[in-house]
Amino acid sequence: MSEVQSRCGMLCEGCEFVQSQGCRGCVNEKVLFHGECQVKNCCEGKENAHCGECAEFPCEKLKGLAYDTQYGDGDDRRLRVCAEWAGIKYGEKTRNKEEREMVQSRCGILCGECKYRESMGCKGCTNIDNPFWGECPVKASCESKGHEHCGQCAEFPCKLANDFAYDKEQGDEGKRLEQCRRWANS
Fold first, then answer.
1. What predicted TM-score, i.e. pTM, was given to this entire model?
2. Which one of 48, 120, 125, 132 is most buried, counting C-beta atoms within 10 A?
3. What gap in Å lies between CA 51 and CA 102, rounded to an integer?
4. What is the rounded CA–CA span in Å between residue 74 and residue 107?
5. Which residues contact residue 38 at a Cβ distance below 8 angstroms, ignoring those fewer than 6 apart?
């Protein structure tokens, strides 16, 4: 995952103005060399690091910029980058800020996105003794160390958490580990 460089998903290393104007990207500049930016102002007004964190993502303002052939890229590249930064698949609904910041599991799974939540009546491992499928070694390890989630552990990501996150059948390609990192840094 690339580092957040802009509010709109622009990857600054490919921008001609980094060299010609000495621009450091809108996340690092209070005043932009080209003047006001509605997308930057909107993000900062909502206290979002980038558009992918917004409940309205992708909004018409961002799409207008992304698809603009003069100031944007003329395609959905910026929308895809913002989705990546938000830890969601392009086209998925952005989770609201409270949901992203609230610890819902020990391993980083966001319970609101889990397909078993309703069908199995699961309340999330922070609210039950054991998940519906049996004892969870990640939950047990985390709780035995007194941690709210794996991201608080000095060994994070340990082999157990990593194996769980990248399991061929139930893993999510590390998405839950990224969520633990966000929780740890919030």
1. 0.51
2. 125
3. 20
4. 38
5. 61
Please list the alpha-helical segments (H only) found in 2-115: 16-20, 38-45, 60-67, 77-86, 97-101
d(CA 145, CA 137): 12
Report whether 149 contacts 181 (CB < 8 A): no
Average pLDDT over residues 65-70: 87
The rounded distance, in Å, linking the Cα atoms of 107 and 128 is 14
DSSP-H helix ranges across 1-96 = 16-20, 38-45, 60-67, 77-86
Per the structure block, which two tokens stand in for 35? 């003047």
66: tokens are: 């992304």
Non-local CB neighbours of 24 within 8 Å, separated by 6+ positions = 12, 18
